[in-house]
Design a protein that fits this description.
The chain is an alpha+beta fold. The chain contains six helices and ten strands, in the order αββββββαββαβαβαα.
C-alpha cells in the first residue's frame, strides 16, 4: 500500500492518457490544472485533424434554463439548471441528449438530433421541444463549450494535464446524477494510478 507522500508524482508520469482521445470518451483534468478547467470532466464530441471539441459535464450554474430557453426547462435531466460547457462561446447554448431505446432502433435519427456516439448526440434547440422530447431519455443544456486547435490537446496530454478515460456508460456518465463529485468518482472508478489523483494536492510541489 503506497504512503500518502508517495502519491504526488510528476505530471508526465500520472498524466499519460489511458486511451487515445476520440468522441465519446472522457477528458479528465489532472489535479494541478487551474481554471477554467479545474477538476473538470469533459465529454469529447470531436477529435480529428481540424481540432478538438468537448463539453464540460460537471459545472452546473445557478441559472434556471427557463429564463433563457423556457420550452426545454421541464424536459431536463436532474435540476433545471444551465451547465457551463466550457470557456468558449458562453453566449451560445448547446443541447446534449440521449435517444431512448425505441428511437435508437429507428433507421433514421429524429429531426433536430445529430448523433455523436451510441445514443448520444447534439440537438438543435430551435426544433420544437414537443417534436423531439418523445424520442429522448436524457437532456441537458450547456452554455459554451471547450475547444482546442489542431495538436493542442495532444500537447497538453503529453504534459500530463489530462487523462482520457472510457465512460462506464456514456449516457449515465454524461448525465451524471452527482456532478459535484463526478471528478473524484470517475478517477476512483478508473483505478490504477488515476485513482490517486483525488488525493494529490493541487500544487505538485506540496508534499
Amino acid at each position: 500500500m503506497p504512503r500518502d507522500d508517495d502519491l504526488v508524482l510528476d505530471a508526465p508520469t500520472i498524466g499519460r492518457p489511458a486511451a487515445a482521445p476520440e468522441a465519446g470518451l472522457l477528458l479528465v483534468a489532472a489535479p494541478g490544472l487551474e481554471e477554467p478547467f479545474h477538476r473538470s470532466v469533459i465529454l469529447l464530441l470531436e477529435h480529428d485533424e481540424s481540432g478538438t471539441l468537448g463539453v464540460v459535464l460537471n459545472q452546473p450554474t445557478t441559472l434556471d434554463v427557463g429564463s433563457v430557453l423556457p420550452a426545454w426547462r421541464d424536459h431536463l435531466t436532474g435540476t433545471p439548471h444551465l451547465f457551463q460547457g466550457g470557456p468558449v462561446a458562453l453566449d451560445s447554448a448547446l443541447g446534449l441528449a440521449a435517444l431512448g431505446t425505441a428511437a435508437v432502433r429507428e433507421p433514421e435519427e429524429p429531426a433536430g438530433f445529430r448523433r455523436v456516439v451510441g445514443p448520444l448526440g447534439i440537438i438543435d434547440l430551435d426544433t420544437p421541444a414537443d417534436d423531439l422530447v418523445p424520442h429522448l431519455q436524457a437532456l441537458r443544456i450547456y452554455a459554451g463549450y471547450a475547444g482546442w486547435a489542431p495538436g493542442q490537446l495532444d500537447d497538453e496530454l503529453e504534459r500530463g494535464s489530462w487523462a482520457v478515460i472510457s465512460p462506464a456508460d456514456v449516457v449515465v456518465d454524461t448525465f451524471h446524477a452527482d456532478p459535484e463529485h463526478m471528478w473524484s468518482l470517475v478517477l476512483t472508478r478508473a483505478g490504477g494510478t488515476l485513482a490517486w489523483w483525488p488525493r494529490c494536492p493541487n500544487d505538485p510541489q506540496v508534499n
